[in-house]
Give the backbone structure.
Amino acid sequence: MKFKQETEFRETEIGKIPRDWKVVKLGEVVEIWDKYRIPVKENERKPGSFPYCGANGIIDYIDGYTHDGEFVLLAEDGGFFGRFEKSAYIMRGKFWANNHVHVLKAIKGTIISEFLMHYLNFTDLTPFITGSTRPKLNQEAMKKIPIALPSLVEQMKIADILSTVDRTIEVVDAGVARLEGLKKALMRELLTGRIRVREENGKTVFYREIEFRETEIGKIPRDWKVVKLGEVVEIWDKYRIPVKENERKPGSFPYCGANGIIDYIDGYTHDGEFVLLAEDGGFFGRFEKSAYIMRGKFWANNHVHVLKAIKGTIISEFLMHYLNFTDLTPFITGSTRPKLNQEAMKKIPIALPSLVEQMKIADILSTVDRTIELYYEERTRLDRLKRGLMDLLLTGRVRVVEE
């Protein structure tokens, strides 16, 4: 398979396309199977093996189906309609479709399902949307969506390239899911002391703990202790300064809020190694990212607590992982905008092993984090690659030819 730059175009209602392509309306190349859709409320669904499909994909698995075959499902309402957003997906075999998704069957010899799916996900469908409270792509508007159509052979080649990238993205996503599961399992065992870690002959050794004692936070190893967060950190909140977006001067210093770095600005409020813990506007449940580490110079706003680990007591990375493992919701006040105020924060209990064991636990969990970050970087790279390929192949600026 080779690629070549197209040089001969013609003007159409959707802009320039290759001379040998044509423009068709969606309604000309598909059969619409919406009349067979049946919505079923969640509490009325009988569990089964057939996918129950909505605007954004499979919602559930139920006992029954409305369609059987290969179809492109396109969001009607409750979906995403912008360019490069997943407005469409393919279903094959038996499945149940609800009334929030259009069910389209490609007309044989005219268009290929996978090409159509990619084209719809590449296209900005917002001009065809009606309604503001709940945007909707009604059937009549949908039929008018224009499609730049190459030959079936070229459609197949384009679809194969884009679907190959999709399959690679799925592999990366599955890797992330496995690592996230591994990290949660490790946190459950290591941060409760059920599995211990030590050094033997230069090697890291894991062993199961058998001696526990009861504490206010449950059973912990006999040689661990329970401390309050306020006993092991210095609170540097007084140096925080909020800055409105239109008042920030661009620069090289991270501007930090409840959920991480928001911006880069010209100035800093803190310098050193700190654990930043959401005060409001963050996530406080177990395994949610309520805390993160900042090192060096950064600016902190008033939505995040700034904590400095007391040397010789607790290690920053261990503290970060412990806070992200812990359900902090019992310490939250307010319902409209939940908040972790400073006094409540100080009372958060921590099960504390020795500094050596803290370091080993932190190193294990941070190693998994770094691997997850690599997967996310690869995911971002693949997303950029796919967008670039869609922009070139689905406009015909670059053609796919036989070698």
